[in-house]
Design brief:
Order of helices and strands: EHEEHEH
CATH superfamily of one domain: Ribosomal protein S6/Translation elongation factor EF1B
Distance between the termini: 67 Å
CATH topology of one domain: Alpha-Beta Plaits
Number of helices: 3
Largest sheet: 4 strands, antiparallel
Strand content: 25-35%
Helix content: 25-40%
Radius of gyration: 25 Å
Number of strands: 4
Length: about 150
């Protein structure tokens, strides 16, 4: 059987419990077709770079899958009909990562307390002399449109 990592985005207005139910639903589809699901991670509600179907945020979830390709195709087919799922992506991998994914490691890093940026000496913020910025727009007077032809 092949190894896959599957990530999907669920609408922002579904609850975390509903996202877990969606994961369990598709986990059942994989297992019914002869595969198994390993690690499952909920990355939480995150902002999207651009709106998808009028959603500015989405619940992200990751599933490590060890299944035949037919099982993955069936799961993706069913995901296309689910209106709670905005996007999904399945990637074939050589081996599953051990431990938390990069997204959860990033969250741990973001939770650390940060030093206040204003505690630096004032001189560190000076960018120094930027030099001559050059000719930035002296192109001469603009001719009327009818004269440009």
């Amino acid at each position: 059987m092949a190894l896959y990592e599957h990530v999907f985005l669920a609408r922002q207005d579904v609850s975390s419990q509903q996202v877990e139910a969606i994961v369990e639903q598709y986990k059942g589809v994989i297992e019914a077709n002869g595969g198994k699901v390993g690690r499952i991670e909920h990355w939480g509600l995150k902002s999207l770079t651009y709106r998808i179907n009028k959603n500015r945020k989405a619940h992200y979830a990751l599933m490590d899958i060890d299944a035949p390709s037919d099982a993955v195709k069936e799961m993706e087919r069913q995901m296309r009909f689910n209106e709670d799922i905005l996007r999904f992506m399945t990637v074939s991998v050589d081996a599953h990562e051990e431990g938390p994914s990069a997204m959860l490691q990033k969250r741990d890093r973001d939770d650390r307390p940060r030093g206040d940026r204003d505690d630096r000496p004032r001189g560190d913020r000076d960018r120094g002399d930027r030099g001559d910025r050059g000719d930035r727009g002296d192109r001469g007077p603009r001719r009327p449109r009818e004269d440009r032809e």
